[in-house]
Amino acid sequence: FPITRQPESTPPTRMGILPAS
After folding, report:
1. Which segments carry the region annotation Disordered (predicted)?
2. Beta strands in 1-21 (DSSP E)
């Protein structure tokens, strides 16, 4: 999946990417 910033409704990951789920 493409590297994307997390939405405000979701806590950011340590890598700052969206989970595959």
Report:
1. 1-21
2. none
pLDDT at 10: 60
End-to-end CA distance of the chain: 10
Tokens of 2: 């493409």
Phi–psi pair at 20, nearest 5 degrees: -70, -20
Count each helix (H run) and each strand (E run) in the chain, helices first: 0, 0
pLDDT in tens, 1-21: 566 665 666 665 666 666 655
Which tokens is 14 given? 């340590």
Token duo for residue 10? 């979701």
